[in-house]
């Protein structure tokens, strides 16, 4: 959670301009590339932006995930999140969180498409509804819906 003010330098109170980083891209190696592509592109609905093929069967697809942020949490916060969002589950060191319009429905849809349910969707103290699944390529996903 942020206070919405961004990071300033020194005593500068003006709204910060765009940062140096233009895009956050999560790069995932998927042993079953076709299954992962189908899951994220077709089931979850992440449109394909770019694709490249190379020698030796090399393939990459870049999927649009909307706005990207980097959420840094200390171990105490991660333990708190796990108590709130799961029934005793533990977060991976890196977990992908995807905002959707209806987290309960999307969580159910992802499980029906082969994801392993780690925690059913539930309301959190920070006014979101969060579910958790294990997706193809071993990614732990939090599917969340903001209520405010």
From TrEMBL:
SUPFAM superfamilies for this protein: Glyoxalase/Bleomycin resistance protein/Dihydroxybiphenyl dioxygenase
Ranges where the VOC domain occurs: 22-146
A Pfam family assignment: Glyoxalase_6
Top-rank lineage group of the source organism: Bacteria
InterPro entries found in the cross-reference section: Glyas_Bleomycin-R_OHBP_Dase, Glyoxalase_6, VOC_core
Name used for this protein in its record: VOC family protein
